[in-house]
Amino acid sequence: MPAFDPAHPVLDLSESSVVLTQQICDVESVSGNETLLADAIVAALEQQAPHLEIVRDGDTVVARTNLGRAQRVAIAGHIDTVPLNDNLPTRYETIDGVEYLWGRGTVDMKAGTAVQLKLAAELVNPEVDITWMWYDHEEVSNDLNGLTRLAANRPELFAADFAILGEPSNSQIEGGCNGNLRAEIRAYGLRAHSARGWVGDNAIHKAATILDTLAHYQAREVEVDGLVYREGLNAVGITGGVAGNVIPDEVMVHVNYRFAPSRSGEEAVAHIHELFPGFDIRIVDLAEGARPGLDAPLAQRFLAAVGGEPKPKYGWTDVARFSAMGVPAVNYGPGDPLKAHADDERVSLQQIRDCEAGLRAWLSGGDSPAAAG
Ligand SMILES: [Zn+2]
Asked: How far is CA 176 from the centre of its chain?
């Protein structure tokens, strides 16, 4: 093979997942600039993975097995990164005896994508049908996200019994995510000159009741499919007041409620109404959480194959997109999420290998990890 040239990338999917990670990281693909990498992925799959049906939508590439298996799993990774900050090309480095690949995209999330590409080519006879998805524009607004576009153009491609997003999770399973609600809670009164305050009705004083409820609120820890989600209810802002000599007639407390995925958005709204009776409540943002779905038999086999203790995910990822479509989903990918988007972004080589071994063991049937391919 000639040396790899990032300007004219030719991917050999039989390379190790570490080498593939390095190669696809060196092909710069900041959001909006994914075409070269998407082209290379399609070319490699067409040549090296004839068992896959390939669909391309913009710079999103979908590759599917059609083996007539009883169940189907969607496995997805984005191919874009946040902007560079002098952190390409990649390089290998060893810190405290741990080997890393350093550079933009190594953690978020081209190591995960590289593992997926390798397995897509090698697992010709998986025990479930697989829909591999590599998509553009994850690191920017949701309306640009390749999966948003694909869901509009080809919703049938999302049909699956379980989904895995390869976002960095230290090669541990992170399931589901909390829902998120913001509400503006208002109390009203009557304006008056503060020199004759007794003829008015002070709205700001009524905020005390709202704040008291918040200060004494016992946030729940809720077990959902075996994972414990910690909720939170907090004031994140307060406004009110007219002038230094006016009894105020309105106060608004801005409240943020992070709720466990066992609770629907509607139930979260009802909970806010029950906590603050008599106040004017406006819901200004509401995103459903995502159940981890780890109680499904398919997921149980995944847990057994991968090992380790699954953890809840607190932030929102594309996992919630699958969940909203009725597909239970988890994050599972190499890299420390705390290094995502960092200037010293770097992924542990061992985590890349662990992630590959975990997915391979599960998809090829658990007890014969090397059998497929
Ligand atoms: Zn990411």
From this structure: 9
Distance of CA 373 from the midpoint of ligand 1 (Å): 28
How far, in Å, is the centroid of ligand 1 from the Cα of 131?
A: 19
pLDDT of residue 72: 97
Interval 107-157: pLDDT, tens: 999 999 999 999 999 999 999 999 999 999 999 888 899 999 999 999 999
356 exposure class (CB count in 10 Å sphere: 0-12, 13-18, 19+): buried
How many Å lie between the centroid of ligand 1 and the Cα of residue 203? 44
Catalytic one among 26, 28, 138, 356?
138
**138 is annotated as an active-site residue:** yes
Q: How many angstroms does the Cα of residue 167 sit away from the middle of ligand 1?
A: 5
Domain with CATH 3.40.630.10 in the chain: 17-177+290-363
Which CATH number fits the domain 17-177+290-363, given the four candidates 3.40.50.12780, 3.30.2350.10, 3.40.630.10, 3.40.50.1950? 3.40.630.10
Centre of ligand 1 from the C-alpha of residue 29, in Å = 13
Instruction: Determine which one of 26, 34, 80, 225 is catalytic.
Output: 80
CATH of domain 186-287: 3.30.70.360
* Range(s) of the chain covered by CATH 3.30.70.360: 186-287
Contact 282, 183 (CB under 8 A): yes
Ligand 1 ion: Cβ-proximal residues, 5 Å cutoff: 108-109, 167
pLDDT value for 292: 82
